[in-house]
Design brief:
Helix content: 40-55%
Bound molecules: 1,4-dihydronicotinamide adenine dinucleotide
Low-confidence stretches: none
CATH class of the largest domain: Mainly Alpha
Strand order of the largest sheet: 3-2-1-4-5-6-7-8
Number of strands: 23
Mean pLDDT: 96
Number of helices: 32
CATH topology of the largest domain: N-(1-d-carboxylethyl)-l-norvaline Dehydrogenase, domain 2
Number of domains: 4
Strand content: 5-15%
Length: about 750
Amino acid sequence: MEIKKVVIIGSGTMGSGIAAQLCNANVPVTLLDLKTAISEKARERILKSRPPLLIDKSKINNIKVGNINDDFNTVKDADWVVEAVVEKIDIKHNIYKKIFTERKSGAIVSSNTSSIPIKVLSEKLSNEEKKDFCITHFFNPVRYMGLLEIVKNENNDLNKINSLKKFCEEELGKGAIICKDTPGFLGNRVGVYAMQVAMTEAFKMKLSIEEADSIFGRPMGIPKTGVFGLYDLIGIDLMADVLKSFIKELPKTDEFQIVAKEIPLVKKLIATGYTGRKGKGGFYRMKKADNKKILEAINLETGEYYSSKKIDIKSEKVDLKSLINRKDKYGKYGWSVISKIIKYASSLVPSVTDKFNDIDEAMRLGFNWVKGPFEMLSEIGVKNFFEKIDSFENNKFLENLAKSKNEDFYGERQLYTEIETLGKAKPKATKIDKNNSAEIYRFEDFNIVEFTTKANVLDYDSMDCLKKATNKPLIIINESMQFSAGVNLTYTMNFADKGDFKSIEKFIKYFQDTCKHLKYCDNPVISAPSGLALGGGEEVVLQSNFVVSHTNIVMGLVETLVGLVPAGGGCKEVLWRWSQSDEAKKDPDFAPLKVFDIIGYAKTATSPIEAEPLKYLKPEDKKIMNRNSLFSVAKKILEENKDFKAPEVCKFNLSGKPLKEKMIKVLEKLYNDKVILDHGMEVGKELANVLSGGETTIDKTLSEDDLYKLELESFMRLIQTKKTQERIKHTLTTGKPLVN
Ligand code: NAI
């Protein structure tokens, strides 16, 4: 069965998200709603969405719109019809009746319901119709959330379900997990339970919301929105509806019932319009005073807001063992939350799933957790866990584990997919080296480097691992969300604060040496980025021999925003790429001016389609929809390049002074128009110096080393200025750039 055309009914949050992802996969789709005006609005929303739902905005016309009265005949041509209307059973039943009368024979029909059992959805369908009906539960935002839960019914044509699963994996890039027909399936059942535990325990243990979010976050391998931040993001009212549905659907004895009880403060917030970010605020709110925005947090006992406090629990890494062994309230909270999540998740085996592993994967793909509950248990250690846990009656999984004491109970990962993923390869690989910032694995006859810092920021140690790992063909890839957010600015500022600029210079020099080595060593180097590849992260990508990029990436050389210039070869490499263009052959200033514009404005791309015109990616770089496939595609490239030869070295002829003057003219205009201020001018001039070749003339040939030197000199001059340091500090504390 081939899926060539899709109709989606209901163009709200989910319908429009699914339509955009189909459009990303080049599948024509029609969005129908009650009125065409509603689906037209949905299309506008798709175009304006941030982060963008579309990989390539120019493809928007692949999404056609209409209404269910005049345009329902489009269903006739569809190979797959997705229902994504409001969560009301009568409305859904009516729609199925219409779809099944109209659809072409054998077309798949699915519902995006998050809470209605398939038994109920399909109760009015004939056995023949049931064959082609299932639930396809996508997560919001569809482009970015990896999880798709597919729920079958007892009559399904299994071949068809499998081909739908394959389509969703390969074309839509989803991790598709087949689930049983139980409330909340896997992701929400465990994910919402975990949120409720994190919340109710914070109330019970009298933690502030910032404290709870700082524990139920990075130290546990959970996104930094934590629980209260996530509540605000999802919508406090929406969460209340979700809980009501769980209370109704789950047996009275289910542990979920205990944590799903209505909380008076939450009720009050909803009633007063504090529904989260979309409302007046939520657990957190932004208060404007004296032209400044102040983040406030709610006091869980009094309901009053106060100026939010940054909590530093002195733990940058995911480290469950240290967390639960802490003797302070953070340790107690951490253990209480983690142990309850492990107990609950394991109580669902085998009734909700017989593959416990699927729960972990659902948490990774649907909630962006680094580890699922069973991996947490494995990390804590079976012996440790049972020494600490109080009781686990009626939990078959834990009873068996307590008996077997099997520390290696986990077995294989990612059983839901046949793709050879990094997650499957790592346990079979040998860890040959590691330091504080990265790890090297040997797999078959090549090496894998995985960065391990927060947002995979880079420092001397990261470079050390990269350099060491080039003794074999190398794939730079990681399981965590970001490829790399760039050079570790905290690390750099620690030196700057001490006036130790020598150490900064040594680091940047080593960064350059490493990138040059990645490009020219005898073994091929492949970068497989996903998520952020910014600044130094992008420089690693640029100087790898091959790139396999996920379609969900944010790429760019953004150094100027923090008052610096790219100095790991970024200026040099993008300049080289642009100087290979036809226009550059005619005009020697074309490439440097183009790169001046790109790096000067710190242009970022939010997909490979946007990255290519900036030459952050090359046309031959692979663009992959399914993140799970990055590893196997990279591995295939290594197999195809057994006789790899390092590229030829690059040479540059740059105009020097007259070119620099052209660039300064551009800066002066921006300065006069107040687009940039004093320091913007300084940073721009340094960039101009690098890209014009410094003290050179057009007839002089510069080597890559000459450009590395110019980058380093500019970087060192800038990092020593007070205003660059102010920019860096501002970005580190607020996450935003400072214009000075
Ligand atoms: P929504 O409220 O954003 O959109 C629903 C759309 O359905 C609206 O545009 C509405 O005009 C339209 N609609 C209502 N009756 C209709 C009819 N008879 N014919 C055609 N269109 C009709 O809802 P949302 O959030 O997109 O949810 C849709 C489905 O997806 C629900 O079943 C929900 O449970 C499920 N879901 C929602 C998630 C979320 O995060 N919002 C996540 C996963 C699943």
